[in-house]
Amino acid sequence: MTGAWDGAGLPPVAAARVAGGRDGGTWSSALSTGEFAAIRSVGFEPVGQVMGSAVYRVGRSGRYWGYHACGYRSGWSNGGNPAPVALSGQGAPSAALVQVLDDARRAALGRMTAECTALGGDGVVAARLTMAPFPAAPHCLEFKVIGTAVRAAGEVRPHRPFTSHLDGAGFAKLITAGWVPVGLLVGMSVGVRHDDYRTGLQRFSWSNQEVDGWTDLVRQVRADARAQLRRQAADCGGRGVILADHDLRVWQEPCLTRDKQTDHITESTLVGTAVVRFATAPARPRTLTVMPLNGDGDRLRRRLAQAARR
To answer: CA 266, CA 189: separation in Å to the nearest integer?
Structure first.
């Protein structure tokens, strides 16, 4: 099944694949045997492998785009203060870059969730989100997410399908502990800092010392990425986030405002799953199995009976 797609609903190829799976009554997944058994042990069944993808053109560098502008004003105009960190979370030009990357991930996740809904699933486990260069197309990236849709055996359905990076075993442990996944999240921040005069002195010093400007750069970017992740978790109703992966990239580029000078750019990315508690009643105490080995079974039964009457 092929044809033009207006961007609404499932792409024709995905719709044909979902329809074929439903009509055939079989399902596919990337689950291992252990993960499959773990999911079934907590009352869920796989309904099919699901996927979403989106190709975006993303100009990540260069003077034309200006995403990595440091905003540094040299000389006496800044009062001799250290170069600030231009942070995406505080409205720096890099915020536009973070926004387009976030839009691309959301598009891929939305298409995967649409496939889950079409299969009658309640959510997606073991979702793997990747970003890779699109072949033969400079500045173009493909965002792809693949997971396994699952459906609960009971009658209670979530308001919307959940997404999670947790594998089958991790998902089963989460359900057993009284928590459920809500959504797969990506918190990202980009920070740009000009390599000012003080940074140059510390960088090429003959003595061992901290380059405090770069320390401040990585600290602020990591903190901003965590703040973005917490905000997204709160927006989707999550009480906490189980972290799946974190990455920090640091590189140097020519300064966009000062010729023959450089900036350092840091990009922090955090991937995790927002979770919420579904069981509020206190857990029942676990029973202790005792096997008497010395013939004192009668005395033990009397003591247990006395304890039960208290």
So the answer is: 8
Q: How does pLDDT run across 5-41, given as a tens digit for each residue?
A: 676 777 777 777 777 766 766 777 778 889 989 999 9
Separation of alpha carbons 150 and 128, rounded Å? 15
Can you give the pTM of this predicted structure?
0.79
Give the C-alpha separation, 142 to 129, whole Å: 11
Name the pairing type of β-strands 123-133 and 140-152: antiparallel
| Closest alpha carbon to 252 in 179, 194, 174 | 194
Euclidean distance between CA atoms 48 and 302, whole angstroms: 54
Write out pLDDT tens, residues 162-180.
Answer: 999 999 999 999 999 999 9
Instruction: Answer whether 21's CB lies under 8 Å from 92's CB.
Output: no
**Full 3-state SS string of 189-253:** EEEEEECCHHHHHHHCCCCCCCCHHHHHHHHHHHHHHHHHHHHHHHHCCCCEEEEEEEEEEEEEE
Q: Diameter of the chain by CA atoms? A: 91
Query: Are 145 and 109 a contacting pair, CB within 8 Å?
Result: yes
Report the candidate in 102, 125, 143, 158 with the shortest Cα–Cα distance to residue 48: 125
Task: State the Cα–Cα distance between residues 8 and 38, nearest whole angstrom.
Answer: 35
List the one residue out of 91, 54, 306 whose CA is nearest residue 192. Answer: 91
Q: What is the distance between the alpha carbons of residues 236 and 222, in angstroms, rounded to a whole number?
A: 22
Distance of CA 295 to the CA centre of its chain: 57
Average pLDDT over residues 275-294: 70
The Cα 236–Cα 154 span in angstroms is: 24
- Residues 265, 252: contact at Cβ < 8 Å? yes
